[in-house]
């Protein structure tokens, strides 16, 4: 039995503590917005926030999340209105969409730590998120737009 | 009546001048001694901060044994398991061939990466299971940006001097250097998960030559020293 706090909700779960967090999220709690890509922390499709850091849930054991705060794409905002989600919609970023929740979760850490990222900042933050459809330019533009929205909201 | 007509006054003035000169001379001597003392104190501090080996009891100087031990140490430090996290650039290296880490994670100010690309996001407290999956350790990181402690490209002499230099070795004293070989992140070099070649010496062999090198004086090899294969 382990206790996890996911998207501000407490769960008591009958799972092996060595189970990757990804499978606890997807199979046990049915939060399927987080995707399985490579299983070895190479693609970024499974990124969730653990105490605000963009961990790869496919290699993160559930035991590491005990007593911590986990946030998935479903919990990033109350009404899907995080500036990144709004910018993603406005610029119609996804193609197949499979990698996009991981992309947004990684970008959210960037925007929290850097309110006005340069192109290089965006490359440095997003290099670990692969998109087979090649939507990189739209992702880059959406991050800039979201940063602008975020700055305007805080004025 | 002028002054020369009053020998008593002249004598008094002469006495006053002598006392004054004596005082000045003594004052100068005291000042010079104080300055010299301050310099000695300052120099001793400077020497202490430059030389981590302030515990001479444990150091039995032997330059031959020291250099011989370091040449073995060098083989380990230049193996992929150590070298990969002591790169010349700001991106770690990866694999037995020490290629640039895929995804190009950046060192960051504290050596733990930047934004969504922090080391611990992929590198867990323990190794991930499976071939060539991310190795793990709670301390996984590069050296910080203000003290990069580069191994890549260093000759044996350069690396030995760097490690012995308190200002370039992460501010480690002799005791802290000895302790560093027992650090969990250093030990992790011999437990890097499937698909990675360990360093050329066993861990106990490494600790032995490391200690020997430091405890015999931490000498640096000559300019042309090349490790034996």
Features:
heterodimer, A: 155 residues, alpha+beta, Ubiquitin-like (UB roll), DNA polymerase, domain 1, 2 domains, 5-stranded mixed beta sheet, 36% helix, 14% strand, B: 229 residues, mainly alpha, two-stranded antiparallel sheet, two-stranded antiparallel ribbon, 8 helices
How does this structure look, described?
The complex is a heterodimer of chains A (155) and B (229). With 155 residues, chain A is an alpha+beta fold. Chain A has 2 domains: 2-75, Ubiquitin-like (UB roll) (Roll); 83-153, DNA polymerase, domain 1. Chain A has 5 helices and 5 strands. Chain A has helices at 21-28, 83-90, 100-113, 119-126, 136-153; strands spanning 2-6, 9-13, 47-50, 53-56, 69-71. A 5-stranded mixed β-sheet of chain A has the order 2-1-5-3-4, with helices on one face. In chain A, strand 3 and strand 4 form a beta hairpin. In chain A, helix 2 packs across helix 5 and helix 3 crosses helix 4. The longest helix of chain A is centred in the last third of the chain and has 18 residues, at 136-153. The mean pLDDT of chain A is 97. Chain B folds into 2 domains: 3-50; 56-215, no CATH class. The longest helix of chain B is centred in the N-terminal third of the chain and has 44 residues, at 7-50. Chain B is mainly alpha-helical and 229 residues long. Chain B has a two-stranded antiparallel sheet with strand order 1-2. A two-stranded antiparallel sheet of chain B has the order 3-4. Chain B has helices at residues 7-50, 63-77, 80-83, 119-122, 156-164, 174-180, 184-187, 203-215, and strands at residues 93-94, 99-100, 113-114, 117-118. In chain B, helix 2 (63-77) packs antiparallel against helix 8. Chains A and B meet through strand 4, helix 3 and helix 4 of A and strand 4 and helix 4 of B.
């Amino acid at each position: 039995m382990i206790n996890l706090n996911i998207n501000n909700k407490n769960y008591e779960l009958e799972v092996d503590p060595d189970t990757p967090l990804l499978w606890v999220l997807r199979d046990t709690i049915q939060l399927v917005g987080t995707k399985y890509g490579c299983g070895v922390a190479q693609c970024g499709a499974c990124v969730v926030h653990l105490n605000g850091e963009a961990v790869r849930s496919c290699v993160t054991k559930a035991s590491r999340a005990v007593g911590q705060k986990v946030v998935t794409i479903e919990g990033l905002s109350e009404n899907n209105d995080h500036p990144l989600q709004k910018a993603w919609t406005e610029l119609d970023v996804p193609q197949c969409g499979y990698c996009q929740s991981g992309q947004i979760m990684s970008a959210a850490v960037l925007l929290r730590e850097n309110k006005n990222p340069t192109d290089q900042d965006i490359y440095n933050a997003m290099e670990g998120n692969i998109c087979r459809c090649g939507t990189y330019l739209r992702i880059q533009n959406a991050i800039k737009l979201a940063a602008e929205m975020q700055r305007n909201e805080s004025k | 009546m002028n002054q020369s007509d009053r020998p008593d006054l002249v004598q008094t003035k002469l006495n006053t001048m002598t006392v004054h000169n004596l005082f000045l001379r003594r004052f100068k001597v005291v000042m010079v001694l104080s300055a010299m003392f301050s310099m000695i104190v300052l120099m001793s501090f400077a020497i202490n901060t430059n030389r981590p080996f302030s515990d001479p009891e444990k150091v039995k100087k032997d330059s031959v044994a020291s250099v011989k031990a370091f040449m073995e140490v060098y083989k380990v430090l230049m193996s992929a398991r150590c070298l990969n996290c002591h790169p010349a650039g700001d991106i770690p290296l990866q694999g037995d061939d020490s290629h640039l880490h895929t995804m190009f994670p950046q060192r960051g100010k504290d050596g733990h990466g930047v934004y969504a690309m922090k080391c611990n996001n992929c590198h867990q407290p323990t190794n991930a299971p499976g071939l060539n999956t991310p190795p793990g350790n709670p301390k996984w990181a590069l050296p910080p940006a203000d003290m990069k402690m580069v191994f890549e490209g260093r000759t044996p002499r350069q690396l030995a001097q760097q490690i012995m230099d308190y200002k370039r070795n992460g501010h480690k004293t002799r005791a802290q250097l000895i302790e560093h070989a027992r650090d969990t992140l250093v030990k992790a070099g011999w437990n890097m998960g499937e698909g990675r070649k360990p360093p050329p010496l066993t861990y106990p062999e490494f600790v032995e030559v490391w200690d020997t090198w430091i405890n015999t004086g931490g000498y640096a090899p000559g300019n042309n020293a090349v490790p034996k294969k």
